## 1
Amino acid sequence: MPENEKPKPKIDLNRREMPKQEHHIRSHNFFEVALGYTAQLAMEEAQRCLQCKKPFCVADCPVQIKIPEFIHAVAEGDFASGIRILKERNSLPSVCGRVCPQEEQCESHCALTKKGGTIAIGRLERFLGDWEGALAEVPLPEQAAPTGKKVAIIGGGPAGLTAAADLIKAGHRVVIYEALHKMGGVLYYGIPEFRLPKSIVDREVDYLRRLGVEMHTDFVVGKTRSLESILEEFDAVFIGTGAGLPWFMEMPGNNLNGVYSANEYLTRINLMKGYSYPRNDTPIKRHQKVAVLGGGNVAMDCARTALRLGAEATIVYRRSRAELPARLEEVENAEEEGVQFRYLTLPLKTIGGDHFNVTALECLKMELGEPDASGRRSPVPIPGSEFILPFDSIIHAIGNGPNPLIPQTTPGLTIGKKGNIVIDLETGKTSKERVWAGGDIATGAATVISAMGAGRKAASSIHEFLVS
């Protein structure tokens, strides 16, 4: 080696694990499972980053966070610069660091994957968000001079909050209308406390209030006031009302007591503070044996919630473990906590007893055939293999459809076959003049970060329209 040539640093493939509650403790409480990095662990993890000249991790981030830059700041111990860089494009870092599927997006494109490793981008994002949240006062970014333009945001979920953040920083007046009594949408009502604490959502929402975003809760656009009348007052409208229409498997017994959609079950727990049981006085129905139909992240959330409320919880899934669509981390957490899994099992019928209460679930055994369009092997029924499992509650966690209220009450909006608002995917523009939309109301149920990406695209298009 030439005398003045520095040796290349050795690649560190040792991803720093994040501490979490022991499974035998956390399965009996609603406190957050993952405990977050210490400053030392965060710096060690960040120092593993190769600081690529062409960072492919950024290309697959829906909100285009400057990932190498914020990680470099963490590696140097300059957390103030790190959070400033991060929040240039993401106003909800503590949320995204907890619930985004980084392993399928930014982390999957990390250059270290060629050597069998990755950087824990999401955990570093969470660390910076929480570091800032612990400050006595969170600094606000510079904002553009007021433009005199007004934008209404319909829905206070991740798409709406993100669009609001970008638009308020661009100098526009922003007003959010939220149907429920707390801001956050799915962040507040659809994700369990042990995975995303309400205090984190409140903190991120309060940051937007400090930026100047005006917020109205208990305001149902389409009922309280029509979108048409809002357009008379505002220069532009963004619709981010999400996917609140539950889906059920088509089978007998869905009208029995003890049958829930995942949407209803999780909203009940969050709305009535079931996560504070027994400290909270609001009554929550506590079942003994709960079946959750489905294999996604929401199914894991329902099963792990039922478990913490004292039930024996079982995931009933028609494919094998290898085909589960849930994040591996969530599946492993559920397994550790004691959630049972019935694989290759197809629900056929919910059985009721006295007073129309659920007593059992009739099922059919399956086997795997050829892969379908998604690449997962298709389940094939085994004739004559019916059997019955005893349960007193059935939760359908097979997805949701777009919220139908605004599409049904707003003339001039083009609606797709599945009830979604049709938009230009690059801008979020709808068929109605001065109206944009994004997130689950346009694409169907997807991830938090994809909804945020849609909010950013729409905000950019709205800003361009307002200043042109």
## 2
Amino acid sequence: MRARRREGGGLAMPMIYPHKIEMPTADPEERRSSWDEVALGYTVEQAVFEARRCLQCQDPVCEQGCPVNVPIRDFVRAVSLRRFDEAARTIRRRNILPAVCGRVCPVEHQCELRCVLRAKQDPVGIGRLERFVADWEREHGGSAITAPEVQRPEKIAIIGSGPAGLTAASDLAAQGYHVTVFEALHALGGVLRYGIPEYRLPKAIVDEDVEHLCAMGVEFARDVIVGKTVTIDQLLTELGYTAVFVGTGAGFPVFLDVPGENLKGVYSANEFLTRVNLMHAWAFPEYDTPVRRPTRAAVIGAGDTAMDAVRCSIRLGAEEAHIVYRRSETEKGAREEDYRRAIEEGAIFDWLTVPTRFLGDENGWVRAVECIRTELGEPDESGRRRPIPVPGSGFVLEADLVVIALGTRPNPLVPQATAGLDIDAHGCIVADPDTGTTSRDGVFAGGDITTGAATVILAMGAGRRAATAIDDYIRTRAGEREVSHV
């Protein structure tokens, strides 16, 4: 098979290979008892071959699907030419977390959804290539990151060290502002730390990205609960911050509100994953974190978080691990890749099933889930067909661990502690989606606290837009002060 040469000296493979290069993965049977990363990453040759599938469109519509506007065409071309350092620099112009995004971004609904190859074959594996470039950069020392030469006098407070907060902090530090990130937990990274398991996102990667921000001059204050330890009003007055960005996420769990939900061994997905990830329950017995070691697990829900929970329960020793979901496979919210890997690892899927009660033993521990089968009726407000219970179809599913993964709502602490900060009916801070501007002067917000639970990359996009607006806000104020002194 001969390659054809295109303008600029790059080699492009003939378009007779319709499928993206498969991601190498660890053996499914070995994965059941291992917390090592499942996806192993492309080799150099696999990455170059995949990059050469790209048509290098004159109008790269794939970039329109990226919330942080990564120059996808340019970095993919650099990979095709084996210019990996150039590819890394190109990505980092717009994305400070490429190793994270290359692992967890739902690219099938974003950049890859727009790829023109989708009309007749697989889209280019943009996410896999981004991960390859980020990993190559890490393995080869990366680029030197330093604080900006010009420092501005203003101080900016970032509340929350998740993807929105880290992105806003990076962009503002690059402009020379004094940035402090306030984090309620003892470890940094927000949902990247507590919500995503080690086998999908090694925490060493999060640590390295935080170190990059430290090198830029960003300061981090851990164990600070804004709304309790200190308020936004105090930040803007007593502590001298000119602007505040709120990126506290959506960590407030949603429950079923059925009998037995308060039994021991019944967790919200947030609590379960926090114990496993942040508190190192995955590293037992080195860390003796209290979490139920199941024989039979039941996870309620079928989104990305549910897949994380069921796969964690398998690694914690579950002989059977069930996903219980009230709709069908078609309506599941999980990424196809994670769903397929859960199947490979032995997860059992009980579709068209809804829990009605949790049953406990004499010691107050959950022992089973009482369920009823459903059938799908007309679409509801979500656009999906409404599940309707089937009379007489009840049954009992044995389970000594239950994880409720039905979504989350915004954390209410900051809005409750901040007078004049408007929220909507769902508890989200009301903010301009283009600027992050809120009802309070000098207070900006973005990410899940404004939208409800969404994706890492969407939160990063919100952090970036808010950083731009904060810079404009501060420069405008500075200009007004200068005029007043004339």
## 3
Amino acid sequence: MGTYAVTGGAAGIGSAVREQLAARGHEVIVVDLDGADIVADLATEGGRRAAIDAITERAPDGLDGFVPCAGVGPSVTPPSLVTRINYFGTVVLVEALRPLVARKRGCMVLISSNSAPMGADAGYVERCLSGDEAAAAAAADAIGDGQNAYAGSKLALTRWMRRRSTAYAKEGVRMNAVALGITRTALTDRVMADERLGPAIRGFGATIPTGSIGVPGQIANVIAFLLSPGADFMCGSVVFADGGHDAMLRPDEF
């Protein structure tokens, strides 16, 4: 049996991933703000460092897989918090845990979104990709649009993954991403309850081709597959798990 680490694993999609891996007999190290094996705030440098150190201590022989599932939605304020958690909270841990995953020739699955291709400020995305967290956070707050911050963070993360997947593969690490559609979690419930964003998100959810909003277990199924030997020829892939929304909205962009 293997050893996996999951951030954001105390609730929502991360918890569903944890449950599936544990049901298969794997050890799962969970990182979250509370109710986790490792309690850490990934919006901060200190929290990221604490998480990295604790995971390394708990998995001295390496990791079979890592799923950085921690994230926040567009209703969070300030928008820079989205940047710090969704983008930098992910890439810092991915880079730091890379040697542990390489040791076992394991897998990483990042969490993207079907909103990533739907438009975001190009300058903000480039600031994320430059690695300048202060500049990217300032850009997010200057734009002042939570949806732009969210979509941009996921677009930047997906490009970051694609640009590095070859180098990771040469070290034995398969890295892919799942682009989520609307999925019923506490995070989504907060967005739907938001006075400004809620009506648009509810309306968008009503147009899902398969007929319903996703649930965490459906997304965890895809993540578990990408972590499995059955996906051993997948690398640098972005898998849409969104009930057909991306195909509906961008049928010719392939």
